[in-house]
Protein 1
Amino acid sequence: MFWIVHQIVLSVHILLGITWVGGILFVGWGVFPAAEKLDYISRQRFLISLMQGVHHLFTLVGSGVIVTGVLLGTVLGPVRQLDSMFHSAYGHNLLMAFTVGVLTLLWGVFVSYRFSMKVLTHQTLWRMAENGYPRLLKNAMRSVAIVSGVEVLGFLGLVAIMLSF
């Protein structure tokens, strides 16, 4: 029975991880570039609506990845005592994965999302672009990509840690 529960939680962990990482990458590398086909005002409205719609979902899914990861490493895994967390290679990797996962999620929730919404709701940038002066908006969107790129680095770090387990 223990093995079945472990496999179910592992499957949920993997599914949530794919959804979290894949969803964010799809929005950033798929939807945002495709939205450039829209006129500026339609693009702004669409992206604001999209970000508001997926933000809570990605936050919940990312939290689920972290919770299931902790369960897999502790209750359903080898780290059953706090002492083994600090005195085993698996415990070190688990602690590192937890830290990177939480920091990546917090960055997405409190930095990347807020910065993106600040640019998307900055009316002057969008009006200037609509009136033929898109340079400031392009620079601001490039900044959004850079700020959001920190999440991608977090995901790459998590993958590297997972591969070392």
Protein 2
Amino acid sequence: MSAFQINLNPLKEPLGFIKILEWFASIFTFATCGGFKGKTEILVSCPSKGVVNKTITAAFGYPFRLNQASFHSHSSGNVCNVTWENYVLIGDYSSSAQFYVTFAVFVFLYCMAALVLYVGYTSLYRESRKLPMINVNDMAP
């Protein structure tokens, strides 16, 4: 078994370059989904005369438990004599979002381990018959 030696040549080959792209994609995947925050707004027009239209907002974010996101008014709790905190969005998408982020974290860890194997243990990787690899030098005419 050979020792750890840094060799950046595998990163120039498609095998290593694609792992770098996968690594970056996994970072952006769990960062954008895990840190997502959004809101939905409704403009409420009251039927009584002389009452100004009001906007109510429901804010939500990761893990997308929309059934816990209630509406709030910017000015007061009541808009058109209705307490909007009693109304929530529909849906609980937390299991899908958490699976997505968890899978992205596992892909990130896999890519890190593969890059360490490609960059640090290139000679061991090329000599091993148990790990699949195509040697570009053997394919030359």
